[in-house]
Amino acid sequence: MPTKPIVLFNGKDLSNWVTWLADHKFSDPNQVFRVVDRIDGAPAIRVSGEGYGGIVTKESYKDYQLVVEFRWGSITWGKRMDRTMDSGILLHAQGREGGSSATFNGPWMHSIEYQLIEGGTGDFIRVGGYDEGGKRNIPTFYSTALMMRNGQYNYDPNGEKVRFDEKQGRTNWYGRDPDWKDVLGFRGAQDVENPVGQWNKVDIICKGDTIISMLNGKIVNKATECSMTEGRLLFQTEGAEIFFRRIELHPLK
Predict the structure, then answer these.
(1) 3 state SS of 211
(2) Residues 38, 43, 47, 53: what is their CA dihedral angle, to the nearest 10 degrees?
(3) Following CA atoms 12, 18, 20, 26 in sequence, which dihedral angle do they give, to the nearest 10 degrees?
């Protein structure tokens, strides 16, 4: 629980983080993660998007407001070359790196994901992970939501209370287009995210078992009664170039 602001990106290096990539583990031979001296006037972390994995905080945290500024680059990779630019922030990440696979060579960790994706930034996704005994743990939470015509739930503060578990895998942000398509450059009618190439500000408030998701000043999603309340942070590489120039934790007001 931070008692004063914690600057996780110091503008110089990744000293507060470890890098993790499926197959490569703690090595980064292709420099997927590196600090660039200046983009749009300030230093930033460049995540190339190649491979699958992320940068992971060395420490665990609980009860904080996470402030992040990000923007997409122009490079996409592999099977996601022609698909929406995709990344994410894993909250309350627990267990070993790579624990999304029983072999501990997966890209992710047991966590709740704040998704970063064209048309879907602010979605909450449950990410399962294995413990040392081989048991797979899957987070659960509740949200007030409405079922859309595509069969998925969008957050709605006046919607029904829904438990998201093995049957219901995710809750989308309130304006996610039910006609969303996984194609590069997709934009929905209600998108709060700025167009590609422009910076966005993410605020994520984690207080006890509640997570409030904000994008560019608007509350876009909320989860309550989360089964996870603390852990590390993981910023993904998932097929698209992305830049982060501000990553800070602030005490809750």
Answers:
(1) strand
(2) 160
(3) 110
Q: How far apart are CA 85 and CA 72, in angstroms?
A: 7
Contacts of 244 (CB under 8 A, 6+ apart): 9, 44, 45, 47, 68, 69, 70, 235
What is the spatial distance between Cα 126 and Cα 171, in angstroms, rounded to a whole number?
Answer: 9
Rg (CA), the chain: 17
For residue 167, what are the CA distances in angstroms to 90, 140, 152, 170? 21, 10, 11, 9
148-172 burial code (b ≥16 CB/10 A, e <16): eeeebbbbeeebeebebeeebeebb
Consecutive 10-residue averages of pLDDT for the chain (253 residues): 91 97 97 96 97 98 98 96 98 97 97 98 97 94 96 96 86 97 96 97 98 98 98 98 98 92
Map out the domains of the chain with their CATH numbers: 6-250 (2.60.120.560)
